[in-house]
Hints:
The structure is a single chain. By secondary structure, this protein is α/β, with parallel strands linked by helices. The protein has one domain (4-326): TIM Barrel (Alpha-Beta Barrel). Helix content is 46%, strand content 17%. It has helices spanning 4-11, 25-33, 41-52, 68-71, 81-87, 118-127, 149-168, 187-207, 234-248, 265-282, 294-304, 311-327; strands at residues 17-21, 61-66, 91-95, 100-103, 106-112, 132-139, 172-179, 216-219, 255-258, 287-292. The strands form two sheets. An eight-stranded parallel barrel has the order 1-2-3-6-7-8-9-10, surrounded by seven helices. The longest helix has 21 residues, at 187-207. The protein is globular, with a radius of gyration of 19 Å. Residues 20, 136, 176, 178, 259-261, 292-295 line the site of 1,3-dihydroxyacetonephosphate.
Amino acid sequence: MYDLHEIALSLVAPKKGLLAADESIKTAGKRLATCGVESTAETRRQYRELFLDTPSIEKYLSGVILFEETLKQSSDSGVPFPELLEQKDILPGIKVDQGTEPMSDSSKETVTKGLLDLEERLAPYRASGARFTKWRAVIRIDGDTLPSAKAIMENAKRLASYALMAQQSGLVPILEPEVLLEGNHSRLRTKDVIETTMNAVFSAVDDIAVDRTALIIKTSMALSGSDSGRTDTPEEVADSTVEALKACIPADVPGVVFLSGGQSPDQATNNLSAIMKLAQKVGVPWNITFSYARALQSESLSVWKGEKDNVQNARAVFLERLVKVTDALPDVTK
Ligand code: 13P
């Protein structure tokens, strides 16, 4: 039997982080469209291959979150992607939610789908090599009116139910209540919403006795909204983010990972660096690292453009970004 606490700790090992290569088919299509590539099962496989078969990624990545389609696909050399990752000592994970749907009484807020048949889906995922899972909930800020208490509560309950099922199936859950960047709100409003949401998540987690020592929290940074006209300094982001997380993440949680959420690769790198410095200075009880999709992949994608001849250069750009992001991480673990 695998020790879920140990797997969770491996995911937040020193100087390593996660690649979130788990864009849904729809989102992968949007990403491919940015560089003029048509989205088919084969081009999405090539897109995954670009990153997953980059030599030396194991120096920087502890785990990769895959999408269901990719779990069943193979590299150019015919090795199933989960196996390819295991050969590199990188833990394969899988996104298990099925996207969002509008809340019945509010078109602006959503709840995340996928609980109904989750139990039956988890065992085959594990048999395919997945060792951990992710569930993303989306929390939208609109002035003082959103998020509603109802949206927070319903998403928190679903995150907790998912986490319990994942643990019971021998898979580490990553609980991701993403607070969206979109909006004209202040950084302090984001900080408050992160705290309120995480408090609701941990209340739901404790209500059904999810093992807090065998889960990972994935969170947004506390940033000013993208329409606020304000760009926070990395130090401001670090102050608000570390203060928020210290107030709401229990000490027995092994790891906290960040999404990039629409920040540029440099912003996501510099903000993480400032967060890590402050977290070390003030002392936080959990390990912290990144779990980025766009901030790690977008530069490489625009070099690749779907062309075989560009793969080598695109991989070099990906590695360059991985080096920059992992340079932000401290050498020691908790
Ligand atoms: P971004 O880093 O692009 O925000 O993606 C991370 C993620 O996993 C969102 O669910």
